[in-house]
Amino acid sequence: MASVRASTVSEISRRALPWLVPLLIVAAWQILVVIEVVPRRLFPGPTEVAQALADLAATGQLWRHLGASLHRALIGLLVGGGLGLALGILNGLTRTGERLLDTSFQMARTVPHLALIPLAILWFGIGEPSKLFLISLGTFFPMYLNTFHGIRSVDAKLIEAARVYGLGGPRLIFGVILPGALPSVLVGLRYALGVMWVTLIVAETIATQSGIGFLINEAREFMQTPIILAGILVYALLGKLADWFTRQLERLCLPWHPSQRLASS
Fold first, then answer.
1. Which fold has domain 46-264?
2. Higher-scoring residue by pLDDT: 217, 263
3. What does 11-79 look like in DSSP terms, one character per residue?
4. Over pLDDT 90: what percentage of the chain?
5. Residue in 206, 227, 72, 40 with CA at minimum distance from that of residue 138
């Protein structure tokens, strides 16, 4: 019984530990507002932000704008991340593909994709296509680079051993090479998700009528600071949710990987 109780306490502590620092920051924030170290008008406390968030949820505005933001983010990730994954596999598996495309991609990735906002507006206007273009471009390179690197980093001895046992062609690719590259691919997905949210925040400042970014800009015009901070908090929670999702995906797809064994221990 004692061992079960100790195990339960240990599990609760392990799950609560990542939230310790955010909770301490929120507590310090509330204290600073209460003792008026920071002006409440410019920097309202967590209770006011939480009330603004609750009001937005009750009126339905939060869910409408959140749905619009998620739609943009996921479409951009599917297009850009999907292309990055496919071309990373192609160039990783074939020397011809690498010689033909990799140099161009390496040059293009040095250009900050957010610097292309004026061109995106000229090419696609101020509607949804320009936002999806920026998000797709931002998520392309993390997926491409990590997929390419993951495939080229698969142990050559492992591939040679698979060939000795008669594996070749699609069986070698899907049975050995891609599983070996999967840890790097998932790292690329984690980076792509981070870039996706950053790009979304900027993209939603381009003449949009929906989305969390629109909500924040509208609140700025009316000096509604609690709503501005509530929107920033929503972005932070979405980032945390995306990180949790990738961790669960790693745990599901990579139970054999040393990093997962170390995390479990």
1. MetI-like fold (1.10.3720)
2. 217
3. HHHHHHGGGHHHHHHHHHHHHHHHTTSS-TTTS--HHHHHHHHHHHHHHTHHHHHHHHHHHHHHHHHHH
4. 24
5. 72
Q: Are 231 and 216 in contact (CB under 8 A)?
A: yes
Which amino acid belongs to residue 82? G
At 128, which helix (H) or strand (E)?
helix 128-152
Both tokens assigned to 234: 């929503």
Question: 263 in the Ramachandran plot: left (φ > 0), alpha (ψ -120 to 50) or beta?
Answer: alpha
Tokens of residue 206, six digits: 């381009």
Chain centroid to CA 34: 34
Predicted model pTM? 0.82
pLDDT of residue 140: 95
Q: Which pairs with CB-CB distance under 8 Å and at least 24 residues apart come from 233-241? A: 233/49, 233/53, 234/53, 234/62, 234/66, 235/197, 235/201, 238/69, 238/70, 238/197, 239/193, 239/194, 239/197
Strands of 49-202, DSSP E: none
**Rounded to an integer, what distance in angstroms lies between the CA atom of residue 235 and that of residue 194?**
11
Q: What CA–CA distance (Å, rounded) separates 246 from 186?
A: 7
Residue position matching structure tokens 């990579």 = 254
d(CA 91, CA 235): 34
Residue 54 C-beta-side C-alpha neighbours within 13 Å:
6
Provide the token pair at 21.
């620092």
Please provide the average confidence, as pLDDT, over all residues in the chain.
Answer: 84
Task: Return the axis-axis angle of helices 128-152 and 178-203, rounded to nearest 10°.
Answer: 160
CA 44 to CA 21: how far, in whole Å? 20
Structure tokens that stand for 7 in this block: 């195990």
Cβ neighbour number for residue 200 with a 10 Å cutoff: 24
